[in-house]
Write a structure and sequence with these properties.
- With 203 residues, this protein is α+β, with helices and mostly antiparallel strands.
- The chain has one domain.
- It is built from 6 helices and 13 strands.
- The strands form 2 sheets. Strands 1, 4, 5, 8, 9, 10, 11 and 12 form an 8-stranded mixed sheet that branches. A 5-stranded antiparallel sheet has the order 3-2-13-7-6, covered by helices on one side.
- Strand 6 and strand 7 form a beta hairpin.
């Protein structure tokens, strides 16, 4: 088992994050067509077409071989996580669309007891650059994503001190996953559509 950058994934671009993760319809046709919850309710063919249109329109941007640092601010608390791939022989199944090779949701992993202060500081330092996306929802939660510059240091931190004391939210031991969020502290729920994994045969 090893930790690596994610091969290919899509995230909202610029300020689109708030629109993409919106759970309730706004009544504006253009805005609502960009909500992931709306297109996820479509059949596979229409979902794929709508998602491709969002990428072409610049609502989503596709990143390859990257580590993403996620910052979530809610209720005065900031939560940090690193998006990575956990390589191995038997991947953990993640929510996906049949036949589309699209991962709908990252696997969330959080440390049980390890001191994550250094890991958190490393992720916080990445948040001083221009974000790939940044948006505040109607509920007041702010989602920001940053392309990691200190990729090697983050991967080393996860390999050496975080992963060994980490358990997935729904699995007893760390298992391979192409799309994993390693939290610097307790894991939180991430709305569908904020981070979408794209496998080899997908978009």
């Amino acid at each position: 088992m090893d930790i690596a950058p994610v091969a290919r994934f899509a995230v909202p671009a610029g300020t689109a994050a708030a629109i993409v993760v919106a759970r309730e319809a706004t009544g504006d046709e253009t805005t609502d067509s960009r909500r992931f919850a709306a297109i996820a309710s479509l059949d596979d063919a229409r979902f794929r077409g709508s998602f491709e249109e969002l990428i072409v329109a610049g609502v989503y941007t596709v990143l390859s071989e990257r580590v993403l640092v996620l910052r979530v601010s809610a209720g005065g608390v900031r939560t940090f996580a690193a998006l990575v791939a956990i390589a191995g022989a038997t991947p953990v199944p993640t929510p996906s669309r049949a036949g589309l090779d699209i991962e709908l949701q990252p696997l969330a992993l959080a440390p049980d007891a390890a001191d994550t202060a250094a890991f958190r500081a490393l992720l916080e330092s990445e948040a001083k650059q221009r974000p790939v996306f940044h948006g505040t929802t109607a509920e007041g939660t702010t989602y920001s994503g940053f392309e990691a510059q200190a990729t090697a240091e983050i991967l080393t931190a996860i390999r050496g001190t975080i992963l060994g004391a980490t358990t997935p939210k729904t699995h007893p031991t760390p298992r391979p996953s192409p799309l994993s969020l390693i939290f610097a502290g307790a894991a939180i729920d991430i709305p569908p559509g904020l981070i979408v994994g794209l496998r080899q045969a997908s978009i």
